[in-house]
């Protein structure tokens, strides 16, 4: 029998209702939405005439489409102690995410061949609490693997233009602009039009900036080494390529500098398929507040000044240059983060760059967006904005928008049930990630996830904990004109 989900605040995300409605959602035994009840009268009529297996009434909690994060580092196999499938997907579920897409770089081996993709999917099955898809990696020497990776089901291809930190950089080296263009030419020659190419968009400096070795525990010692010019140069390169190869969509990952926005906007207006994302930490944290030895704040590109932050918020408006928000969740063990005792503690120049934020992305963005980020300066971030930035646009980027990202008949019954008004204080020990260090520790945030539902099944409930690991591996099977997904 079908399941019935009720709420006085259902946000459909289908474009028909900007305001939440009082109604219900019927999900069939396959986890697919069969019917949307758009009023209390329709709910009463349904209950009178049809028997459901179970009725879940969430009262005044917001029920909206499950969130989608297209930028998550799951480091298994190889570095499970940094972050594994169980811990990452539990954190995702507790944060209201029903689908996450794994970056290819931090596992060992990285996802740069069909064989390594198979190793990833084999490791994931049976232990994931939300649906998981995968990016394939572009590195020097694996050009013959890219079309096979796309055919094997990755959501797209991803590379970095600036070397990763050790030990990842040895296994997932950067590529330069010439090789990226060669890859674009190769895919075009192979008539492979599908799949976005996502890029960590920083270019190395021609001359390294000298650092003060006596001030490595101060954030400024690190910030000056990665100036906005690195992002600007990379965005200029991506803009040229997007216009030169208009059939291929390029996507700039985790953009931090607002100085790149003019270039990206000009490219979009010229017809280039270039999209941009930013991250919760660039919107909620600023360089001025990073404490001495606070290496949990370190990431690439870096968290910048408050003045930069305000410009990012303006670019998030509907129709703005920045299309989506993704976590770039990339935790690591305390020793690698220089968070353990000893002389190396707090060394910003040696610490691993990455923010632990997957479980907290929703409340971080919702809290920081209070009073700004909406359609007008005098309006706060709305549910419609949140859905667009953290659900629908990520679904569209990854080709999931035919069955995820909105509440409508025929789509997966994936829901985030939460209270926008409820507040809590971040306690690292309550995070489900493999490691607990986060720059949000002790912060008061607004927005509490009460339940997460994947295809009609509760995978997380605030007070009951987790259900079974019922998430599925998402593999995209493609042809020239038709894209379908196999959920395994």
UniProtKB/TrEMBL annotation:
<dbReference type="GO" id="GO:0005737">
    <property type="term" value="C:cytoplasm"/>
</dbReference>
<keyword id="KW-0665">Pyrimidine biosynthesis</keyword>
<feature type="domain" description="Dihydroorotase catalytic">
    <location>
        <begin position="62"/>
        <end position="111"/>
    </location>
</feature>
<dbReference type="InterPro" id="IPR024403">
    <property type="entry name" value="DHOase_cat"/>
</dbReference>
<keyword id="KW-0862">Zinc</keyword>
<comment type="similarity">
    <text>Belongs to the metallo-dependent hydrolases superfamily. Allantoinase family.</text>
</comment>
<dbReference type="GO" id="GO:0004038">
    <property type="term" value="F:allantoinase activity"/>
</dbReference>
<dbReference type="InterPro" id="IPR017593">
    <property type="entry name" value="Allantoinase"/>
</dbReference>
<dbReference type="GO" id="GO:0000256">
    <property type="term" value="P:allantoin catabolic process"/>
</dbReference>
<dbReference type="InterPro" id="IPR050138">
    <property type="entry name" value="DHOase/Allantoinase_Hydrolase"/>
</dbReference>
<keyword id="KW-0479">Metal-binding</keyword>
<protein>
    <recommendedName>
        <fullName>allantoinase</fullName>
        <ecNumber>3.5.2.5</ecNumber>
    </recommendedName>
</protein>
<comment type="pathway">
    <text>Nitrogen metabolism; (S)-allantoin degradation; allantoate from (S)-allantoin: step 1/1.</text>
</comment>
<dbReference type="GO" id="GO:0050897">
    <property type="term" value="F:cobalt ion binding"/>
</dbReference>
<dbReference type="Pfam" id="PF01979">
    <property type="entry name" value="Amidohydro_1"/>
</dbReference>
<dbReference type="InterPro" id="IPR006680">
    <property type="entry name" value="Amidohydro-rel"/>
</dbReference>
<dbReference type="GO" id="GO:0006145">
    <property type="term" value="P:purine nucleobase catabolic process"/>
</dbReference>
<comment type="subunit">
    <text>Homotetramer.</text>
</comment>
<dbReference type="GO" id="GO:0008270">
    <property type="term" value="F:zinc ion binding"/>
</dbReference>
<dbReference type="Pfam" id="PF12890">
    <property type="entry name" value="DHOase"/>
</dbReference>
<dbReference type="InterPro" id="IPR011059">
    <property type="entry name" value="Metal-dep_hydrolase_composite"/>
</dbReference>
<dbReference type="InterPro" id="IPR032466">
    <property type="entry name" value="Metal_Hydrolase"/>
</dbReference>
<keyword id="KW-0378">Hydrolase</keyword>
<feature type="domain" description="Amidohydrolase-related">
    <location>
        <begin position="305"/>
        <end position="456"/>
    </location>
</feature>
């Amino acid at each position: 029998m079908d399941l019935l989900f009720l709420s006085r605040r259902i946000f459909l995300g289908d474009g028909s209702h900007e305001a939440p409605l009082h109604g219900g959602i019927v999900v069939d035994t396959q986890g697919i939405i069969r019917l949307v009840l758009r009023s209390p009268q329709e709910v009463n009529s349904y209950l009178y005439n049809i028997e459901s297996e179970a009725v879940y009434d969430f009262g005044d909690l917001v029920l909206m489409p499950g969130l989608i994060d297209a930028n998550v580092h799951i480091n298994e196999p190889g570095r499970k102690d940094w972050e594994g499938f169980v811990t990452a997907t539990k954190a995702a579920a507790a944060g209201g995410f029903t689908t996450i897409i794994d970056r290819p770089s931090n596992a060992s081996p990285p996802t740069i061949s069909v064989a390594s993709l198979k190793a990833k999917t084999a490791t994931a099955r049976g232990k994931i609490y939300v649906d998981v898809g995968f990016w394939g990696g572009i590195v020097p020497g694996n050009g013959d693997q890219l079309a096979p990776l796309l055919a094997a089901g990755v959501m797209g291809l991803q590379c970095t233009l600036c070397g990763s930190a050790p030990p990842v950089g040895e296994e997932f080296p950067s590529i330069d602009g010439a090789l990226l263009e060669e890859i674009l030419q190769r895919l075009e020659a192979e008539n492979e039009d599908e799949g976005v190419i996502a890029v960590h968009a920083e270019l190395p400096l021609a001359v390294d900036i000298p650092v003060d070795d006596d001030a490595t525990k101060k954030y400024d010692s690190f910030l000056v080494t990665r100036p906005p010019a690195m992002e600007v140069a990379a965005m200029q390169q991506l803009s040229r390529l997007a216009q030169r190869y208009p059939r291929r969509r390029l996507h700039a990952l985790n953009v931090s500098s607002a100085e790149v926005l003019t270039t990206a906007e000009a490219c979009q207006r010229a017809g280039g398929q270039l999209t941009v994302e930013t991250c919760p930490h660039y919107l909620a944290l600023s360089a001025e507040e990073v404490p001495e030895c606070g290496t949990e704040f370190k990431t690439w590109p870096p968290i910048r000044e408050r003045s930069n932050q305000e410009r990012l918020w303006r670019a998030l408006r509907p129709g703005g240059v920045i299309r989506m928000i993704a976590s770039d969740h990339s935790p690591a063990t305390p020793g690698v983060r220089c968070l353990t005792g000893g002389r190396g503690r707090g060394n910003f120049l040696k610490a691993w760059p990455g923010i632990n934020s997957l479980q907290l992305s929703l409340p971080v963005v919702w809290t920081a967006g209070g009073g700004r980020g909406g359609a007008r300066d005098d309006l706060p971030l709305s549910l419609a904005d949140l859905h667009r930035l953290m659900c629908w646009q990520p679904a569209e980027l990854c080709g999931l928008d035919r069955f995820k990202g909105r509440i409508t008949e025929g789509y997966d019954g994936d829901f985030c049930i939460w209270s926008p008004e409820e507040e809590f204080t971040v306690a690292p020990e309550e995070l489900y990630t493999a490691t607990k260090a986060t720059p949000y520790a002790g912060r008061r945030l607004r927005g509490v996830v009460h339940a997460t539902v994947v295809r009609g099944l509760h995978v997380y409930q605030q007070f009951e904990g987790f259900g079974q690991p019922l998430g599925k591996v998402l593999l995209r099977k493609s042809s020239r004109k038709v894209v379908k997904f196999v959920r395994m």
